[in-house]
Amino acid sequence: MDKWICVICGYIYDEALGMPDHGIAPGTKFTELPDDWVCPECGSPKDSFEIYTG
Ligand SMILES: [Fe+2]
Fold first, then answer.
1. Fold of domain 3-51
2. From ligand 1's centre to the CA of 39, what distance in Å?
3. C-alpha of residue 17 to centroid of ligand 1, in Å
4. DSSP state of 19
5. Per-residue pLDDT, 12
6. How far is the CA of 41 from the centre of ligand 1 (A)?
7. Cα of 49 to ligand 1 centre, how many Å?
8. Greatest pairwise CA separation for the chain in angstroms
9. Of 3, 17, 44, 49, which has the maximum CB count within 10 A?
10. Above 90 in pLDDT, residue 47?
11. Residue 34 Cα, ligand 1 centroid: separation in angstroms?
């Protein structure tokens, strides 16, 4: 499981947690999110995210 960070606003998507409030189950890989998924904080597209290693 990885974490991905939005380089625009700093929002972190944690694959282990998913986004249950948005219908995304825990354990959902970032790459499995729909292509039209956007950052829930700032609305940036998936390509604005990178792997978070911090
Ligand atoms: Fe964002």
1. Rubrerythrin, domain 2 (2.20.28)
2. 5
3. 17
4. B
5. 98
6. 5
7. 8
8. 26
9. 49
10. yes
11. 16
CA of 44 to the centre of ligand 1 (A): 5
Distance 38 CA to ligand 1 centre (A): 8
Please state, in angstroms and rounded to a whole number, the distance separating the CA atoms of residues 49 and 54. 14
pLDDT over 90 at 54, yes or no: no
**49: buried, middle or exposed (CB in 10 Å: 19+, 13-18, 0-12)?**
buried
List CB contacts of 1: < 8 A, sequence separation 6 or more.
Answer: 14, 15, 16, 27, 29
- Cβ(4)–Cβ(30) below 8 Å: yes
